[in-house]
Give the backbone structure.
Amino acid sequence: LDTLEKWVTEIFSEIPNNGLPKPSFSHLTQPFDTPEFHKLYRVVPIRKVHSLNITWALPPQEQHYRVKPLHYISWLVGHEGKGSVLSFLRKKFWALALYGGNDETGFEQNSTYSVFSISVTLTDEGYKHFYEVAHIVFQYVKMLQKRGPDKRQVRKLTFILFYLLYRIWEEIQKIEANEFHYQEQTDPVDYVESLCENMQLFKQEDFLTGDELLFDYKPEV
């Protein structure tokens, strides 16, 4: 550590500190407010594969890193058990795999916007019905929206839904905690690079865990 500190001091001490604030692009919150975004694009792949990708542009979500709402939604969308989107599409022989999520960094999440994408790997038969596949995905997302905590519902029903949604969130929280505590050792250089990035995004007490763990359950978020 003493040697590393000496190197860092020698290399970086000559860089002047101009006292300028960190650049902010938070006022540019509608980068996809253009007709070109609300379209269907057909791209011919190099290899033989059929994939349907649906992308939503959302307000910036990085301030909600302790809640990770997009991680929660992606867990529900990507569920493969009975009653899931993928299970339904597989029964129709229309899809092989489904992934939904946000990388929580870089292009997909920043101070300007966040994106949420759902990607479905289609069979040859599924490609013939990709409009119907897209419709099913939107129906599922609409169902999740309707079944979320709603103050207008009967109090008892609201409590049951709130409890079920909390149990799902708690399950995700435990899974992520286990993966964090029992993860394999990473390359030191990659680890330091990751920590330096986290220092720009999270509070000091969350430098090590801000990009990994779920802390707070806030259904309104």
